[in-house]
Structures are given as structure tokens and as C-alpha cells.
Amino acid sequence: MAKQQFKAESKRLLEMMINSIYTQREIFLRELISNASDAIDKIYYKALTDDNLVFNKEDYFVKITADKESRTLTITDTGIGMTQEDLENNLGVIAKSGSLAFKSENEAKDGHNIIGQFGVGFYSAFMVADVVTVTSRALGSDEAFKWESEGADGYSITSADKDSIGTEIVLKIKENTEDDQYDEYLEEYRLKAIVKKYSDFIRYPIKMDVKTQRPKEDAENEFEEVQEEQTINSMVPIWRKNKGELTDADYENFYNEKRYGFDKPLKHVHVKADGAVVYNAILFIPENTPFDYYSKEYEKGLELYSNGVLIMDKCGDLLPDYFSFVKGMVDSEDLSLNISREMLQHDRQLTLIAKNIKNKVKSALQSMLKDERDNYEKFFESFGRGLKFGVYNDYGMNKEDLQELLLFTSSKEKKLVSLDEYVSRMPEDQKYIYYASGDSIDRIEKLPQTEMVLDKGYEILYFTDDVDEFAIKMLTKYKEKEFKSVSSGDLGIESESDKQESETEQNDNKELFESMATLLSGKVKAVKASKRLKSHPVCLSTEGDVSIEMEKILKAMPNSQDIQADKVLEINTNHDVFASLKSLQGDEDKLKLYTNLLYNQALLIEGLPIADPVEFTNDICKIMV
Predict the structure, then answer these.
(1) pTM for the whole thing?
(2) I need a surface site. Which of 61, 180, 200, 545 has the fewest CB within 10 A?
């Protein structure tokens, strides 16, 4: 038969499919194996309605054969085969899919589904082959036919000899070039790796002659190299097995085999969803943080399969950023894929799956927090910072999902507590959830601002992560209890008599405080008599939304603006230092000296830099003389 031109599309279309649609050449083997699996499925469908046809699963397989000498790679299947008309219609018309037509005529039954819906996957073979030859004999036919093409120039169909039903595809692999090494597609190890990556869970055996060593029969302790046929795919994926027949060890082995991490997962979630969208999933909560987790290089996502065929290594759309630590996979028949089956269309099915997975992960974490506290604290140590960022990001849109999962170190017993645990043990007279921020727990415990709250018997949450206070500002309250920093200007603790006494102290020393505020103009908003200090002479409090810790964090950021907290210098009027201050009225030089010393002392307590360390040391020397 003379060479024919492709009926539907131009040479440019085929070139575009080969060079643009697929991002990785190795995809060709996935596509050809998927087509072979589809061909076997078609026999299975026919056996469901044809009493004369018996489907014996052991008789059906896919075989891969590489011949380095002839530079050919052969993919053989025992599927339904193609007639001359099928070859003409399915391979002679680019982007026409026989599988799609078959699927429309035969609704999926018994868990079998045909995924070759676009009809372009076959042509991916031309990415690695100069010549593609397809020899096929259809079920119920005594004739076989050969389709052959060198690419966009066209194809020919001729009669052929074939003893059995099925299809054989022979690829004449391209010669190596300076930029591309095509030899890899003739190497046993490479072919096995591609099958393992994309087609490990094809439901039929994928066979290959594999080199192995065995003991020589006539020589002791000597081995000979032989080739033996092996099945190189797993066939039945773990996610399609019943949960009851799987053990924790089975899930851990799967985690290790898929190289999701080098640790032991803290928890797994096995999902079999059969509702508005049908999918299977196995999700893992790791114990250890990947080395690049908190960097821009980290790529979130779950492995995505369509009927056991890997479509994407990392589908980021299935996980919100705050659950990016989750590892695992999703397999669904309901996905709308693009023409290359490498990417998802953003549709309702994907959104439903992602929403469901988010809820499953949240439930698993809540269960850990309640029933496996030690494991949850291990998890939180690794990934808690990400949950806090999740509360802060997107203007607090996700705070309702995450607030119950947060843990903070408490002033009581120095243990991690949840917000729920904190609120549940608050005294009746406590109005606020109190927190203190700092570089470390040790540093926070020494803050003068904590004295009054602790003396009241109230619990304080210690914030040591840079995101903590930003997240809490986004929450604003938990179970109707507002958050309050121990450095806040008004702690909400003082009794009416305390307030009146403080106002009296403020009024009695108004002139002194105003003079000090003038000396510290631009540095503090005011100088006040402290209501919170017990043993310390001085501290800084803040007014407004920006705290001192937030100021430090914001200033440390690249291209930061000069963001300042509204600071108030508080003086302990019961301290001996205050008596010295009062005696300085009228001595402007000494008042300035003491004022600067107290202000710099307050800065050091907060971990803030002193503007002029030399001046500070000189001031200390002045009072020592």
C-alpha cells in the first residue's frame, strides 16, 4: 500500500505534539503501556457481555523487549488488537482516540476504566524513534496488518503475519546526538525505572527479560549470567486493597518505597471516597522536616494517578500551603486531564478532592493531638511554624481551620499547650489570654513585664517563633477571649484602687515624667508610672498594634521600612532608683544622664540595640566616679 498522508492534521501539528506537548521524553513509554493496558481492558469489557469469550487474567500481559544491536524497543500486548480499519482510523487520524469511542459505547464496569481519551499518546513515540512500526491482529480476525511511519511525512498500512491476537509496536530508536542520549531507552535499568515510576500499578503484568546471575550447575561457587523473564510492575496498588488486610508495616514500606522521606511517618490516612467524586488516597504525616522545607526550593504536592498511571509527581493544587508537609498519593478516575495527560485542568473534581483531603488531614491532626500527644508534639516541633504561617497568611482566611492545632510553651510547667487547654483552665476573673514574646523562653522569663501577670496566678504563653505574634494578631481572640501582650499598656488586671493610686502617682510626678519624655523625644511616646513592675526599676510597654518584637522582626527583613512600635517608658515608683530621679529635679544634666541610662537599660532588657554604645558606657562611668 502506498504511503498515505495523515488525514486530520498537518506536519506542523505532529511536530508540535512531539516537541511541545510532552515535557519529558520518557513519557512515551507510559503512553504506550497505557494503550496496551487499554487494549486488554477492551477484551475484559467484551467478556462481560459475550458468553463465548472467557477472560482469563493470566493470559494477558504487556512485554517490553530492548535490542541494542538493532536499536529497537518493542512493546507487545495480548489485547484486543486492531483491524485495518482501526489502524486507519485510530493511527491515521491524529488526535482521534479509539479508546474514547470505545468508552462512550461501553460504560466502565467493575472498576475498569480506559484512560486513553485523546489519541495523541501514541505519537509521543516519535520523540525517541525515527520509525514506528505497529503490527496488530484483532480479536476474531485471521488477518494481521502492519502500520508504519517515519513521522509527519505520512504512513503506510500493509498485510502482515502475526500468530496471536494483540499488538506489537517496534520503535527504531534515534541515534545519539551531542545534546541527547537516546541509548538510555535501550538500557534495562532505565526502562525498569520508567515503568516503576509511571506504570507500576497498571493492573496487568508488564514483563521484561532481565539479566540475572545463577549458580553454575557443574561448578561450585561460580555463577553465570542468564536472562529470565520477570514481571517488573507491582500491579495491585496498596490503595486499592482493603484497609483491614493492611498493617502499619505495609504503609511504612510503601512510604519508604516511594521515597516520600527517610524518616518513619507519624501517621497515615487511607481514604476511599465514593461520593460526588471517586478517588483513593494514602496520606502520610512525616516526623522530620525536609532539609529545604522552609525554603523557596521546597515543592509541595501529592503524587497524582489516573487509574494507576502516574500523571504528576507533585500536584500542588491538592494541598493548601499550610499542609504542604503531607506526603502521599491520590488516584482518581474522575480527573479532567489535558491532552498530554501530564497536567490537570482546574475543574470541580480537583477542587472537591483538595477540599476533602484538607479535611482529612485536619481530622488526622486533631486525632493525634487528642490521642497521641507525644507524636503530635514531635510533628509540631517540625511543622508547627508552617501552621502558624497558615493562620497569618491570606489575611487570616484559614484561621478557623488551624487555631485548634496550635501549640505554645506555657509558663506553667514549661510544657506545650493548646489554646483550648489554656482557656479551659483560666480563672473566672481572667479576662485575657496573656502572652510574652522574645528570642527564647529563658529570656522571656526574665522580662520585668511578666511580673504582675504571674503574681496574679495567670498563665502566660511564650512566643519564640518570629511568626507567633503576627498569627495571634490575625486571630485576635479564641473562644471569645482576646489575646493580650504582657507588654501592653493596659493589662486589664488592675483594680479600681490600683488605677486611682497609679493616676495619683502620675499626676504627682507629672513634671518629672514630662521632662524625661522631652529628653527622649522621638524615642518614646511617653514616660509613665508603672502599674506592672514589682522588683525591676524600668521597662518598656507598647501602645498600638505593633509590638517591640514585631518591630525587631520587621526591621530584620530585606528592604524593610522604618516601622516603629509606640513605646512607653515605665518607671517603678516604688524602686530606689525613682527616689534618686526625684532628687534630680532642677539638675538637668544629671536628669538627662539618668534618663538615658534607664532608657538604654530598658532597650537591653528587650533585646533592642543601643543607638550609641560608646555614649552608654561613658554614662555608666559618669555615675561611678
Answers:
(1) 0.80
(2) 545
